[in-house]
Amino acid sequence: MTTHTNRTWFDGNGLDGVAVAAITDDLCIVISPLGIVTITGWEHTAVRLDFDDTVDVAAALTEAVRILRDAGHCTGYPDELVAR
Q1: N or C: which end of the chain has fewer CB within 10 A?
Q2: Residue 55 and residue 42 share a domain
Q3: Residues 67, 59: contact at Cβ < 8 Å?
């Protein structure tokens, strides 16, 4: 069974070398063959990150999740209880 906290988000590399993760209906992450990560969000706003910036953003988001969990926040997904 695939869970929200223990799953593969990306559809894999297509023939064109692009990997896509559709997180929600209005949040998408695309990895280009050149190593650029594009996060497209609400109202089609986009942020483009090179590898170094992607690593920094991932680390900051990981820390943000820890801070929020420590403050008692949760997603409501049943599998999150296992991931804690």
Answers
A1: N
A2: no
A3: no
**Same domain flag for 70 and 43:** no
Range of the domain at 64: 51-84
CA distance 81 to 51: 31
Can you tell me the distance from the alpha carbon of 4 to that of 66, in angstroms, rounded to the nearest whole number?
16
Residue 82 lies in a domain: yes
17-48: pLDDT as tens digits: 899 999 988 999 999 999 999 999 999 999 99
Is residue 19 within a helix (H) or strand (E), and if so which, with residue range? strand 19-24
User: Measuring CA to CA, how many Å separate 38 from each of 43, 45, 70?
Assistant: 15, 10, 29
